[in-house]
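Attaching the record inline, Q. Sequence:
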Amino acid sequence: MSQQLLRMEIHGLRSFRDVHRELEGRIGDFPGIGPLTVYDLALAIGAHLGFEPEAVYLHAGTAAGARALGLDTEAGTLSIDVLPPAFRKLRCYEVEDCLCIYEGDLRRIGGSPRPSGRDPIPPVGYTDTAIHL
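Structure, as predicted:
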């Protein structure tokens, strides 16, 4: 995999989307490399190049949070415009974090059950505060 990344031509990339697509094409099929790894690497490389996501990218946890808000996740990304007003104040990568981290809270607010029937272990520093959407 490191050889694939070393051969990556970054000078022609013009946006976060370009970085993400390039990485997905180069390493997305490697065993153990999933959408979250591709996104995280694209975020790091994009930040180095001065790019940030123009949309909210949906991997497993983020997609679950979006579904808890009743949003359509089929496209794999969300425009910031389709989110509740409180989320529109955030940058796309911040929304991605919130949807993933607070997926359980969003589900409880929205009333949708957790597929496994149990809640995740809260992250370090978690406080049980209300989220106002």
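Residues 68 and 124 are 22 Å apart (CA to CA). The longest strand covers residues 56-57.

More tomorrow.
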